[in-house]
Specification:
This protein is mainly alpha-helical. 79% of the residues lie in helices and 0% in strands. Helix 1 packs across helix 4 and helix 6 crosses helix 8.
């Protein structure tokens, strides 16, 4: 019972620190965010931050993971709304890229995230998204809808296109103007994996 209570307190502390870090990183950016200020915001001490996350970078990783997973969930919902499948996969990509316009996503995940945490392709959240894309592509491949290409390779490249499109939008001086160009290019590249052969056979018959 005591161990359960301790675990709940630790989880509550982590949530407070992540919420405070998320607020501070969004408002001031990672470099300018003060550990003293964000721990005071959470009603905790530096010791609590060190114990739970090691340092400010560790807290940043937890914040990025939380936001990026929320982005993935929102993108998946966009795909499910139109029935999944190939169109759903495209909708997921579009939704992910569009979130690059959100100030919090832009600053924490797409600008400070890579600078502080390194290659986004190595983030746990991106790897979880990769598994979802692999599952969708396998289903499409089983229906003969996509070309016979290695599924993992295809998933990595498709996710990479969407991620890099979002990074471009976030870093652009004209994010609103860049967004439609990024989405159009993503869709153009993505549709290259579709298997046109069945349609061509049907038309020739």
């Amino acid at each position: 019972m005591e161990s359960q209570t301790r675990a709940k307190k630790m989880e509550a502390t982590r949530k407070k620190l992540i919420a405070a870090g998320r607020k501070a990183f969004a408002k001031k950016g990672f470099a300018a965010a003060s550990m003293d200020e964000l721990t005071a915001e959470a009603g905790l001490t530096r010791g609590a931050l060190y114990h739970n996350f090691g340092d400010k970078k560790g807290l940043m990783a937890a914040v990025v993971d939380q936001i990026d997973m929320a982005m993935a969930t929102k993108a998946k919902e966009a795909g499910e709304e139109i029935g999944g499948g190939w169109e759903g996969l495209l909708a997921e990509g579009r939704a992910y890229i569009e979130m690059a316009l959100e100030p919090e996503v832009q600053r924490i995940v797409l600008l400070d995230g890579p600078a502080v945490l390194g290659d986004p392709a190595q983030w746990p959240s991106q790897n979880r998204c990769l598994q979802g894309t692999i599952g969708t592509l396998r289903a499409l491949a089983s229906e003969g809808l996509i070309k016979p290409v290695d599924i993992e390779a295809l998933a990595r490249l498709l996710n990479g296109v969407a991620l890099n499109a979002a990074l471009w939008v976030a870093s652009s001086e004209d994010a609103q103007g860049t967004l439609p160009k990024a989405i159009a290019a993503f869709e153009c590249l993505a549709t290259g994996v579709l298997n046109k052969a069945p349609q061509a056979v049907h038309e020739s018959g």
